[in-house]
Amino acid sequence: MQNIALLEKQRCNLILTNKAKEAVEECSANEHAFFALQKTLTVYIEKRKAKTIGETFLSIYFNAEHNEKLDSILAGKTAIMDCVLKVEGLLATNIRFVHMRGPISTNRRLPAALQFVTKPNNGAGIPLDLHTKIRELPIAEERTEYVKKRIASWEGYLKIQERDATIDDIHTDFKQSYYNEDFSRLTLVCPYVKAKEWKQLEGLSVSIQGVRGEIGQVLKANAGKQTVEIDLKPFAQEQARKDQLNLRSKQASFSNFATLSQIRRLRNGFTKLEKGEAVNANLETILFEKRPTVRTAKLRDDIEFHNNLNEYQRKAVIGALSVEDLYVIQGPPGTGKTTVISEICQQNVKAGLKTLVASQSNLAVDNALGRLLSNQEIRILRYGRTESIEEEGKKFIEENVALHWREQTLAAVEEEITAFTEREQELQVSISKTTDELAKLQAWLEELTKEIAAKEQAAIDEPILQKEIQSLKKELKTAKAEKEASEAQKEHYEKQLAQLASAIQSQEQILAEYASAEQLQQTIQDNTIKIEQWQAAIQYKELLVEKQELTTQFQDIQVKYEQENKRLRFMKESQNYIASLTTYDRIQRFLQHYQVQPSAVLAQQIRRLEHLEDAKDLEAWATINTRLQKAIAKLEASVSPEGKERALAKSRQQPVQSFSLQNLNGVFAQLNASFQEGQTPSVEQLESYLLGLYMRRDFVWQKGMALRQQQEHKDREFESLRKNIASLIHQECAITSFDVQSLQRQLQPYLTHTERLQQLADTFQAEAIPEESVEQLKMLVTTTQSSVQTARQQLQAVEQANTQLLPKRAAHQTAKASLQEIDEELAQLEEKIKAINIEGLKKEKQLTALTTLLQSTPERTLEEVKEAIQTANDSLEELHRKQQQLPLRKKLQEQWRDKLQNATEYDLDEIRKLYVRHANVIGTTCVASASKEFMENYPTFDVVIIDEVSKATPPELLLPMLKGKKIILVGDHHQLPPLLGDDTLEETLKGMLEENPNFDGAQELKSLLRESLFERLFNNLPSTHKQMLALQYRMHEKIMHSITPFYAKEENGLQCGLPDSDAARDHGLEGQFVGRDDHLLWIDMPAEKPFLEEQVKGGTSRYNEGELQTIRHILTDLNTAVMEAKKAGRIPQDAQKSVGVISFYGEQVKKINRLLQQELQLPHLQFRTGTVDKFQGMEMDVILVSMVRNTPKGGDIGFARDYRRLNVALSRARELLMLVGSADMFAKRAKHQDTRDMYSNLLTTVKSYNGLRNHKGQVM
Question: How many distinct helices (H) and strands (E) make up the chain?
C-alpha cells in the first residue's frame, strides 16, 4: 500500500447536498468551518456500485489517525462521505460518522491528500490525475463478491478441521502416570472419564493443572485399560527428562481450543481477503486466477551474494529480489532451499526491508532461519509458542532476544578487547608504511617537475622534426616509385627473356627431333595410296561375305513366300464350294480337302448336325397327303351330309393313332379295289371308309408338320454352318494374305541389295585383291592412318618452327641488353633509399620520444601525487590520532563489557524493546501470523517468504500472504501434500466421504487436490517469476537417481551438485549387508511367513514381523561396520552414524521404537524414527525404509502408492538408502499398473547399481 507521507497534495472542489450539510452541522458550524479545520485531509476513496447508469459513486473515508486536527470532532469515529464524481468536482450526498473495526486503508481504496474547497465558484474542479485514478478503481462490492465466491471452494479445508472441533472440554482426575523410554510420550490412567467421552479424546490438546500451557496431544485413548497416551511437546519432554514436569495435581483437561482458535484465525483470513485488506493488491488474482497477472520484472545485475550459490540458486535469488509481487521457487530434496531463503533474507536486510519467514510447521521455520544465526546485521525475532519452537530458535523469542543480543555483543566486545594489542601493532606498521609512502611520493614529485620542463622543450622541437620527416618521406616516396617502375621493367624483360628462351629451345628441339619437310611429305603421300587400296579390298571382301549370307536368307524367304502364296490361292478356291455344303459328309470332305481347322464353336456345330434326323420321307408323305385328300373328297361326295358329319364326329372322338406309309398305301389299294370291281359299297361301308380316312388325315397332317419343321431346322443349321465356315476361311485368307505381303516386303530390300552387290563386284578388279583377311587389312589401315596423322602434325610443327625461329632469336638479344641497363639503375636506387631510411629512422625515434613526452600527463599526475601526498599526510595524522586514542577506546570497550555483564533487568528490557522494534527478519508459523498480538505488532512486511508451501493448506498460506507486499513461495509439489493429523488431506477426505458421501465441499477439494495452489502457480507463471533448484547436494548420486523420474518433466530435471559424490558421501562401511561402494540397496523379503504383513486387531495400521527381524540384523551389522570403520580410521572415534528408520505405517514405527529402546544396544549409531510423512524435511546419513506390505496374492499397497510419499522416503538419506520389503509385491503384485510401473523403475535403478539383496544380505 502507498506511503501516506509521499502523497501529492491536490485541491478538489466539494459540493454538498442539504443532507450532507446537515450531517456536518451536527459537529461543526458549517461545511466551510469543518473542512477548514485542516488544510489537507488524508482520505481513502472507494468506488461503489452505480445507482444511476453513467455516474460514478464513491465513499470517502477519513479519521483522526492521519488528520490530527479532526481528533476532537471525530472522537475515535471514522467519517464516511458518500459522493458522486462530477466533472466540476465531488458532489457529497451524505456524511456518516461510525465506529469501524477494520482498517480504514484497504487495497480497494485510493489514498489521497485532498484540500476540499467548499466555496462556490472556486474554479478548483477535480484534478485530472485524481479523476483518472478513481475511474481505474475496482468496484469494492464486486471485488468482495468475487472473492467470496472463489474462496468458498476453500471451505472444505475448514470443514475437515471442524469435524471434531465441536467437542466440549473434558476435565478429569488421573490416578497414575508414566513415561515411555525416551520421555516422548506420557500415559495417564483416567478411571473417571465417562464412557461416551473416550471416543472424543483422540486428537485433543492436554493441559495439566499446575503446568503452564498445553503439554501435548492425545494419541490414543483405551477405554478398556482406562489409559490416555499423550504425545508430549518438546518443552514437556525436556522437563520430563529433568523430572521437572509437575504432575502432582493429578488433574487433566482435554480441549480442542487450539483447533478452534486455528479455525477462527483461518476464517479471519478469509474475511480480510474479502474486505481487500491484503497488503499486496494483486493477491486475489494470485490465489484464484488460472494464470495470475504479475508485473513484468527486470532482472537485477547489481547483486553481491553473501553465500556461495550455484547457477540455479543465483537465478532464484536474483528473480526473487527483482520481482515486485510474487516469486515461486521449487526446491526438490537437498537442493539448498534454506540457503536460498538465507540469501534472500540477507539481501533484504541490506536493502532495509523487513522480512517474514513463515511455514506450516515450527520445525520448518527454525530450519529456514538456521543459516541466518551467524550474521549480526540480521536481527531475528522468533514468534510463537515457546514450547513448540526448536531449541535453536528459542534464543530469538521475545523474552530471550535481549539475553542473546547481550551474549552476542559481549562476545564481539571481548573479541575487540583481545585484539587491541594486535591493533596497536597494526597501527604502528601502518604509520611506518605511510611515512615510507610519503617519502616516495615526494621523490616522485621532483621527477614530475623535471618531466614537465622537458615536455615544454619537446613542444618547441616537435614541429621542426615533423617537417624534416615529411621532406624525407616525400624523397623516399619518389625514390620508391622510381624503383618500382624499374623493377616492373626488369620483371617485364625477365619474363620476356624467359619466354623467348623457352620458345627458341622448343623450336630448335622440334627441328632436331623431326625429319625434313620433304621427307615427311613423301611419307604422307605413300601411305595415303596404301590406305585407299586396302580400304577398297576390305569393302570388296565384306560385300562378298554379305552376298553369300543374303543368298542363303533369300532361299528361305522365297520358299516360305511360295508356300504361303499357294495356300492363299487354295483357300480362295475353297470359297467357291461353300454353297454346296448341304450334307454332313460333304462338310467333312471339304474340311479335310482344304485342310481347314475348325474352331471349337464350329466343331461343336458340326457334331450337332451329325445327329439331326434326315427329312428324306417328306416327299412320300406329301404324296400320301395328296392322295388322301382326293380319296376323302371322293367319299364325301358319295355320302350324305349327315353321313359325313357322323364320320367326322366319330373321328374327333377317337384318339390320334399312328399309321405307316405301308398301311396308308394298303388303304388306298383296298379303296381302289372296292371301286374298280364295279361295285358300289354300301352307305355304312362308305361312312366306315370315310371315318378311317378322317383318322388317317389327322395323323398325316401332324406327321407332315413335324417333318417340315425338322427340315426347316436342318436347313437353318446348315446355313449357319456355311456362314461360319465362310467366315473362318475369310479370316484364314486375310491372315495368309498378310503373311504373303510381309514376305514380299522382306524380299524387296534383298533383291535391291543383290543388284547393288552385283554392281560393286563388276566394277572391282578381282586380280588386285590382297591375301590378308579383312581384320588384318583394317589393322593395317588404322596403323597407317595414325602414321599419316603423326607425319602431318610433325610437318606442321617443322614448317612453323622454321617460320618463327629467326625473329625470336633477334628479340632475345634486344631484351638481354635492356635488362642489363635496368639492373644498373636499380643498384643506384637501392643505395639512395637505404640512405633515406637510415636518416628517417633516426628522426622517427627522436619524434617518438618527443610525442611520448607530449602525450604524457605529468601535470595531472603531479596533481594526483600532490593529492596523494595530502591524503598520506591526512592518513598519517589520522593514524597518529587513532594511536593516541587507542588506550581510551580500550578503556571504553572494557567499561561497555562491564555494563553488559552487569546489565539489570531494566537494561535488558530496554534492549529487548529496541531489538523487537528493529527486528528485520521475523519467523513464525502460518497460523501464528494471524494471532491478535502478532497482527497488531506486525501488520505488514516488505517481503513474506513461505517455506514448505506444499505442506500447507491454502487457508493457512493465506494468513502470511495477506501481510506481504512481495510474496515468495518455496516448496515442492512432488513431495507430500498437507497433513491433517497423521493422514494427508487426500486420505482424510477419502475417510470423510466414506462416512458421508454427500460431504459438502468435496468437489471443490477434489479439484484443488488435482492441482495444488503451488503447482498451479509454478506451472503458469512466466519464467521471470519462478525457478526450480536443479542441483541437489544432500544425497549420493546413486540415491538421487531413485527420485529423478519424479522430476523428469521439469525443464532441467534433477542433477547432482556434488563434484565427487563417492568422496563427499562415503559412508566408510563394510559389513554383511552393505559394501563400501553400496549407496542404494533393496533388501528383498520373500512372500512367506514371517515376512508377510499383518493388520492390527481392531485397527487399520499394519506391521511386518519379518521385516523387523531383518532390520534388527541390518542395524546390528551397521553398528559393527561403524566400529570397524573407526578402527580403520575411516570415521572419527567420537562420531556416531546418524540412522533414520522410517515406515509407511505408524504401527511398524512403534515396533521399531520398541526394538531400539528395549532390545538393541548400538552405541555407534544415533537413531531417529518416524513415519515417512513426519520425516519430510529431515535428513540422515543412513535411511532404512520398512515397506511392510507383502501378501502372496498381492493387491493394494495403500500409503505407498502415492509417488510423493515415495519421493519423500527415498530422498532422506545422505550416504546410504536401504529399502526393506518385498520387491515383487511392489513391482509385480501391486494392484494398479501405474504403481507397478513406478516401483519397477525403482527396482531397475537399484539393480543397475547391483543393489538387490535377499533378506540375508546376499546379492541377488
Answer: 37, 32
Q: What is the pLDDT of residues 1132-1152, one digit of tens each?
A: 999 999 999 999 998 899 899
* Cβ–Cβ < 8 Å for 28, 97: no
Between helices 337-350 and 362-369, what is the axis angle to 10°? 60
568-577 b/e with 16+ CB inside 10 Å = b? beebeebeee
Cβ-count burial 360-383 (b if 16+ within 10 Å, e if not): bbbbbbbbbbebbbeeeebbbbbb
pTM of the model: 0.61
Of all helices (H) and strands (E), which one includes residue 1037?
Answer: helix 1037-1040
Measured in degrees and rounded to the nearest 5, phi and psi for residue 168 equal -75, 155
Which conformational region is residue 1146 in: left (phi greater than 0), alpha (psi within -120 to 50 degrees), or beta?
alpha
Q: What is the pLDDT of residues 1213-1232, one digit of tens each?
A: 999 999 999 999 999 999 99
Distances (CA, A) of 965 to 239, 271, 294, 295: 41, 19, 13, 13
E-strand spans in 86-166?
Answer: 90-98, 109-117
Which grid coordinates are listed for 381?
Answer: 525475532
| Sequential DSSP letters for 1181-1192 | EEEEEE-----S
Query: What is the sign of the dihedral through the CA atoms of 1152, 1153, 1158 and 1163?
Result: positive
Residue 1205 and residue 1173 in contact, taking contact as beta carbons nearer than 8 Å: yes
* CA–CA distance, 776 with 534 (Å, rounded to integer): 10
Q: Which residues pair with 924 in a beta bridge?
A: 358
**At a CB cut-off of 8 Å and minimum separation 6, what does 39 contact?**
115
* AA letter at 971: G
Residues near 1117 by beta carbon (within 8 Å), at least 6 away in sequence: 1071, 1072, 1073, 1074, 1257
User: CA-to-CA distance for 62 and 38, rounded, in angstroms?
Assistant: 12
The residue among 983, 974, 927, 987 whose CA lies nearest residue 952 is 927
Nine cell digits for residue 481: 616509385
- Side-chain half-sphere exposure of 209, counting CA atoms within 13 A: 10
Share of the chain above pLDDT 90, in %: 28
d(CA 507, CA 804): 8
Q: Convert the pLDDT of each residue in 395-450 to its tens digit.
A: 777 777 767 777 777 877 787 888 888 888 888 888 888 888 888 888 888 888 88
Dihedral angle sign, alpha carbons of residues 944, 950, 956, 958: positive
